[in-house]
Amino acid sequence: MKKIIAGTGFELTRTLMVLCTSLMASMNMENTVENMNENESIKVLVVDDEQDIRTLLNIYLKRLGYEVVEAADGVEAVETVRANSDIDLIVMDIMMPKLSGTEACEQIREFSSVPVLFLTAKTKEPDQNEAYVVGGDDFLPKPFTQNDFNRKVNALIRRYRVYRGKSEVDAKNITVGNISIDSFKRIVTKNGEIVKLTDKEYALLFFLVEHRGKPWSLEALYENIWQEKYLPSSSNTVMVHILRLRQKIEDNSAQPEIIRTIYGKGYQVD
Known about the structure:
By secondary structure, the protein is an alpha/beta fold. The protein folds into 2 domains: 12-25 and 32-162, Response regulator (Rossmann fold); 171-269, Winged helix-like DNA-binding domain superfamily/Winged helix DNA-binding domain (Arc Repressor Mutant, subunit A, Orthogonal Bundle), CATH 1.10.10.10. The protein is built from 9 helices and 11 strands. The strands form 3 sheets. It has a 5-stranded parallel beta sheet with strand order 2-1-3-4-5, sandwiched between helices. A hairpin with a 2-residue loop joins β6 (173-176) and β7 (179-182).
């Protein structure tokens, strides 16, 4: 049975035609990640139960110069990530047989912090919140343009590579209360126990710690971490990530002592 893209009334075939038209219209656009070594291999895992969608995303990603591996369902996605530690990004549908995208992401988060971009027709706020709660890093509703897709992909890869590269160049251990950050290994520990963070959670914590003593607004955090223009809906994205981060590093997330809320100004680490 073909998927119907929610809110459009168009079947998958029609959607693919629109996306292909978008692809042809933007053949001359420059869509590379800034300051990225041209010879450096970037590997992206595409997960969708529709072969046509995987093929189209494969085209998009290869035009950006990325290596692509594919998985047809959530079970295969988990196995692929476990077998390939060099994956830089996962682009994953949510509604799939065997194991949904959110279920797969939850399992992947048990052993990997590779960023996850969800593609889905489920665009209501509770659906987006669920995607973030299980460890997703960003969310792109269907249907989408090639330009929207490229921006999301490039931003996630750039952030992942920047923080990983920064750790290798400027390695140091940072302590905040009972939390310790090993910036070389990108490991966060609480009372000596490893805390499993997603890429965005780590980026948020590292940013706030590096700029400790200063409150950061939702807009400033979103534009620095997600590297996209702030929209009214972006505030929820930041707040969900802050909540999830507090639940992992605070002794009492309802009364946080590490990431404090400065009312009227934003969030701050002292």
